[in-house]
Write a structure and sequence with these properties.
Number of strands: 18
Order of helices and strands: EEEEEEEEEEEHEEEEEEEHHH
Largest sheet: 2 strands, antiparallel
Strand order of the largest sheet: 1-2
Structural class: alpha+beta
Strand content: 15-25%
Helix content: 10-25%
């Protein structure tokens, strides 16, 4: 007969009134000896064999809730960290975005859709999702409560690269700008200060072109413009008088002479 008792080792347990040590089953552990029961691994954790003394996180790109082993994310999706617990934590990797994700009747995102390449003119961070952009355009922000684009830096949806332009609300229709400095990128419809229109090709009123792009006009600019215009107009009076009284002009009709004079005035104005 056995004359002494021995304790169960790490990774084993012995229920009350039991005389034998039993190895902890898969995904349970016993980190200390003399254990009466094993502790289950939490979501996102597994053991590599029975009689384990510790649990390990699921690798990046996999998840586990109640499964016997870590499950690989579907398609090209991955996770942002180790130890993911649910398929909802599977997202598109960088340089791709989710293009066709579905929603439930409460407009919540469902774990669905496939990842597509970001493409020229766009930049896509980890987890980029077109549904996030749709929510942002509706004023919901990334998680339904962000304001004024505060989630833009989170790269939760594709953004336009510098040197490219996309019309407001049309994120996937991207065009190359004529001048990189005019198109800083970011949200669709974004132009450099003082620029507007398609491809940011037009200057806004009150702005002037400079070596660094555009800068706001100041009072001196308007004064210089007015002075130059007046000087040009005064200098043009003698020439206009001579033109109107030249032999060729005197034979023309009044309407033709007026049209020619107006055209010359406009040409002078455009050169200022």
């Amino acid at each position: 007969a056995q004359s002494y008792c021995s304790f169960c080792l790490q990774g084993y347990f012995a229920p009350e009134n039991s005389t034998e040590c039993t190895p902890c089953p898969l995904n349970e552990m016993a980190p200390l000896p003399r254990t009466g029961q094993c502790s289950p691994c939490g979501p996102g954790f597994i053991t590599r064999h029975v009689a384990s003394t510790s649990c390990f996180r699921c690798k990046v790109g996999t998840y586990r809730l109640n499964e016997t082993q870590c499950v690989k994310c579907p398609g090209r999706k991955t996770t942002a960290y180790q130890g993911a617990a649910t398929i909802e934590e599977c997202v598109c990797p960088a340089e791709t975005y989710l293009a066709d994700g579905l929603r439930d009747e409460m407009d919540q995102h469902l774990p669905s859709g496939s990842c597509v390449d970001c493409g020229e003119g766009l930049t896509c961070g980890l987890g980029s999702d077109m549904r996030h952009f749709e929510d942002f355009m509706k004023g919901k922000g990334q998680h339904g409560d962000a304001e004024d684009g505060e989630d833009q830096m989170d790269q939760s949806y594709p953004l336009v690269q510098a040197g490219y332009f996309a019309r407001t609300g049309e994120l996937t229709s991207v065009f190359r700008c004529g001048a990189v400095i005019d198109c800083p990128g970011g949200l669709p419809g974004t132009c450099a200060a003082g620029r507007t229109g398609a491809l940011c090709g037009h200057g806004e009123a009150g702005w002037k072109t400079s070596s660094d792009g555009c800068e706001a006009c100041v009072f001196l600019d308007f004064s210089l413009f007015s002075t130059t215009f007046m000087v040009m107009m005064l200098a043009g009076v003698p020439f206009f008088y001579y033109f109107m009284n030249s032999p060729m002009t005197s034979k023309a009709s009044t309407l033709l002479s007026t049209a020619i004079a107006f055209g010359m005035a406009m040409t002078l104005l455009q050169t200022v």
